[in-house]
Write a structure and sequence with these properties.
Arylsulfatase, C-terminal domain; alpha/beta; 28% helix; 460 residues; Alkaline Phosphatase, subunit A; four-stranded antiparallel beta sheet
Length: 460
């Protein structure tokens, strides 16, 4: 059994046709979904980008002991375990964070290739003068990231020079040269459709043709009032264009897998880390709260010989490592906290959990012990410090933090867009969900210093 794991960063679940989207074109991923087991209750665990990869690589709920940080030598990772059983592994990525700054996620791979220049990667120093696509005050990081990014892509000539295409072509070339390897693990990580959003014009014109205003390609993470209605509509179109571009080039990778006959002996996964707010809850970005738009993620797994279909069980990124090892017939290390999804993939009516927890790192201390002003002057900086957790069941979603955020409770089975906070009327439900959360943290070996600020449910 070979393994190919494809991660597309910040890919909203509800922007795929196979998850009900009607306006964005994703024909290749929809076709792949029709051949795969599609999980309807996949939820992110550790949030955001780097913590998510750490969950996938280690099979652990890493938000319980670390934040956005380098991989440690002590952590047992998937390519390491596969390598000991004779697997050749390769990482191809344009997502900079997990290999830049000594983060070390490339360790234990047989080989790896980082395609430089994405986001704020300090790749080029010219041209010195860069024309911004909008007023700098509308851009995140004071336009520094966008300025660096525009330098990095200044020599781009065709669609093949965009990051997602380069990453998928790199994966295709590796497969062409290595597909006869007895056992392999290919890890493919593209940062698109994460911002900056600048797909070729043909993709944007599919969704918002004729737009003449400013293009806010990397907006502030903040209440969306800083954008006009046309600007907000256009950032949705920019993102939709990136989604379709990713679909197009992932489709080319799927075609190569099929041409080489690899679908017969290779498990292929398509996944993401989290979503993004485009005006929902009055927000742009992925901050302040972890609502459904961010934590409810797509996950499709195509296993040779297993019948495709939909699954309703709760699954999370730490389940990937034990699932791969189970399919490979390799013993799962006792460090792993996730659960093998193989019985679910086979169609067995079993569950590995009855709720999901999606969380920022618990290692962050409480901001305060007082109610928070939801619109402080330093909103953008302050909101990032809230570090909430979301507990999701079939019916409910509870959002809590560490004594510094009054809880929010939503009856998601009747209020999937989470418009009506019913915490005040359902405090017993909230207490029950909070107890599940604390019990899980304890079972995962979380240090008491991280649990203690969260033991009391504010407002009860």
């Amino acid at each position: 059994m070979n393994f190919i794991y494809i991660n597309a960063d910040t890919f909203r679940r509800d922007h795929l046709g196979c998850y009900g989207n009607k306006w964005i074109r994703t024909p290749n991923l929809d076709k792949f979904a029709s051949e795969s087991v599609v999980f309807d209750r996949a939820y992110t665990a550790s949030f955001p980008t780097v913590p998510n990869r750490r969950d996938v690589f280690t099979g652990r709920y890493t938000f319980t002991y670390t934040d956005w940080a380098p991989l440690t030598k002590e952590e047992v990772v998937l390519p390491q375990v596969l390598g000991k059983s004779g697997y050749v592994s390769y990482m191809i990525l344009d997502t900079p964070h997990i290999v830049a700054w000594g983060f070390g996620f490339e360790r234990s791979f047989s080989a790896w290739n980082w395609i430089r220049g994405q986001e704020g990667d300090r790749f080029k120093t010219d041209p010195a003068e860069v024309k911004l696509p909008c007023k700098p005050e509308k851009l995140r990081a004071g336009a520094r990231t966008v300025t660096q990014y525009l330098r990095n892509v200044s020599e781009r000539k065709s669609e093949k020079d965009y990051f997602a295409p380069m990453t998928m072509v790199g994966a295709i070339k590796w497969l062409d040269r290595n597909y006869k390897t007895e056992k392999f693990f290919l890890y493919v990580d593209t940062f698109d459709p994460h911002e900056p959003w600048d797909p070729p014009k043909k993709y944007v014109d599919m969704y918002n043709p004729g737009y003449k205003g400013e293009e806010v390609i990397y907006p502030l993470y903040a209440p969306c009032s800083f954008l006009s209605d046309p600007e907000l509509e256009h950032i949705r179109a920019l993102y939709a264009g990136e989604v379709t571009m990713v679909d197009t080039w992932v489709g080319k990778l799927f075609k190569k897998i099929e041409e080489l006959g690899l679908f017969e002996n290779t498990t292929v996964v398509f996944a993401t880390d989290h979503g993004f707010y485009f005006g929902e809850h009055g927000l742009v970005g992925k901050i302040a709260r972890i609502y459904e738009e961010v934590c409810h993620i797509p996950l499709m797994i195509r296993v040779p010989g297993l019948r495709p279909g939909r699954r309703s069980q709760f699954v999370q990124p730490p389940d990937i490592m034990p699932t791969f090892l189970d399919l490979a017939g390799i013993e799962v290390p006792d460090t792993v906290q996730g659960k093998s999804l193989v019985p679910i993939l086979r169609g067995e009516k079993v569950a590995v959990r009855d709720f999901a927890v999606s969380s920022c790192a618990l290692t962050n201390p409480p901001v305060s012990d007082k109610p928070i002003d939801l619109n402080p002057t330093n909103w953008n900086e302050y909101a990032f410090k809230l570090k909430p957790s979301t507990i999701t069941t079939d019916e409910w979603a509870l959002i809590v933090s560490a004594g510094d955020l009054y809880p929010e409770l939503y009856h998601i089975s009747t209020d999937p867009r989470q418009q009506n906070n019913v915490f005040a009327e359902n405090k017993e439900v909230a207490k029950s969900l909070h107890a599940k959360y604390i019990t899980l943290l304890e079972s995962l070996g979380t240090k008491e210093e991280y649990i203690s600020p969260r033991r009391n449910l504010v407002g009860v």
